[in-house]
TrEMBL record:
Keyword flag Transferase: yes
Domain spans labelled Erythromycin biosynthesis protein CIII-like C-terminal: 234-371
Family according to the record: Belongs to the glycosyltransferase 28 family.
Domain Erythromycin biosynthesis protein CIII-like N-terminal: from-to ranges: 22-217
Source organism of this protein record: Actinoplanes regularis
SUPFAM superfamilies attached to this UniProt entry: UDP-Glycosyltransferase/glycogen phosphorylase
GO biological process: antibiotic biosynthetic process
Keyword Transferase among record annotations: yes
GO molecular function, one term: UDP-glycosyltransferase activity
Pfam families in the record: EryCIII-like_C (PF06722), EryCIII-like_N (PF21036)
Keywords, alphabetical: Glycosyltransferase, Transferase
Protein name from the UniProt record: UDP:flavonoid glycosyltransferase YjiC, YdhE family
């Protein structure tokens, strides 16, 4: 079987698709990824990739979008605080439109028998309709996205008309990697989340610990939009604590940190799947990939939401009890100490970890998808 994976632009959008793509290849199916921009990093996972929108960078597009409407970022932030995700339709409807022609050409040339697309890459449903094959909607995780799927489909309605296709009422299949106890209701087939965020040569210090370790992971966009303030606040709150804080931020974000305290290690980016098993907790901003990677590792989480869907994820973690949530400006030393000392957080984190382990693996889902196709 030929399986086409479609990703909206962004490494964090394509990475959740990689384990399932590996699962298909491991049992002999042909896999191809249609992507652009940062999502082309799927090639580093050993997958064949076609650039369906050469030269298109979502960062440039979003900068232009915000520049054309200076009030948009503030409205986006307020919508995020109201736990609304409708902004993604405004932002990613045009993105999907930009990908459509290249994707349709690829699909018609390669003729896949199944199309799998990420939750923001719903142009994949258009390609599936064009070939009359099943389209599989792969959720990122905790955020419930059915309304988002419908909104993006509505935004692309004229493209279905242009190609002479019937718009689907719902995905053929939705894959849901969320731990069931962390969401209000399931959405589709449950699948175990397998963290993937690239590879790296691991530093020697990673296996050497003399005190508890806390990972710090911020969205690459957070330091750029918020300045070094969030990073500096974390470092200041960690000063003097009997714990090591690992800021896996990359060169650009580290530049604004200055000289960190002795118990704060600023390092190159590391895969969460390698870093988190060495940690007792994590501080992050609230994206699904980091939240689920932490859940897989069974470590308590402190979420400092900045926008987008971060607040929804912060709510889910706080309600489940496997972590804490606070406004970035509320971060202080007592909060970090509670993250490490509150045994109830660790118990809940281990419960969620066991829950994830009981879900069907991507490899198990492969055969079910083949049978359904």
């Amino acid at each position: 079987m030929r399986v086409l994976f479609v990703s909206s632009p962004g490494a964090g959008h394509v990475f959740p698709l990689v384990p399932l793509a590996w699962g298909f290849r491991a049992v002999g199916h042909e896999v191809l990824v249609g992507a652009c921009g940062e999502s082309l990093e799927a090639a580093d996972a050993g997958l064949p990739v076609v650039d369906i929108a050469p030269g298109f960078l979502v960062q440039d597009y979003l900068r232009q979008l915000f520049a054309s409407d200076p009030g948009l970022p503030a409205r986006d932030r307020e919508a995020a605080r109201r736990r609304e995700i409708s902004f993604a339709v405004t932002a990613f409807g045009p993105v999907n439109r930009r990908l459509a022609d290249g994707l349709m050409r690829l699909a018609r040339d390669w003729r896949p028998e199944l199309v799998v697309y990420d939750e923001l890459g719903v142009v994949g449903a258009l390609a599936a309709a064009g070939l009359n094959v099943p389209g599989v909607h792969h959720n990122y995780g905790i955020v419930r996205t059915r309304s988002l799927w419908l909104g993006l489909q509505e935004a692309l309605a004229d493209l279905y008309d242009e190609y002479g296709l019937a718009r689907p009422a719902e995905p053929a299949v939705t894959l849901d990697p969320a731990p069931p106890s962390m969401v209000s209701e399931p959405d589709g087939w449950p699948v175990r989340y397998v963290p993937y965020s690239g590879g790296a040569v691991l530093p020697g210090w990673l296996s050497e610990r003399s005190r508890p370790r806390v990972a710090v992971a911020l969205d690459t966009a957070v330091p750029g939009t918020e300045g070094p303030g969030p990073i500096r606040r974390i470092a200041d709150a960690a000063t003097g604590m009997e714990a090591e804080f690992v800021l896996a931020l990359g060169d650009e974000s580290r530049a604004g940190l200055g000289d960190p305290p002795g118990n704060v290690r600023a390092c190159e980016w590391l895969p969460m799947s390698a870093l988190l098993p060495t940690c007792e907790a994590i501080v992050h901003h609230g994206t699904s990939d980091v939240a689920l990677a932490a859940a897989v590792a069974g470590v308590p989480q402190l979420v400092l939401p900045f926008g987008k869907h971060h607040f929804v994820i912060a709510d889910a973690i706080e309600k489940r009890g496997n972590g804490l949530a606070a406004e970035p400006g509320e971060l202080d030393t007592p909060l970090l100490e509670r993250l490490l000392s509150d045994g109830r957080l660790r118990v809940a984190a281990h419960e969620v970890q066991d829950e994830i382990r009981a879900l069907p693996s991507p490899a198990e889902i492969v055969q079910r998808l083949v049978d359904a196709a």
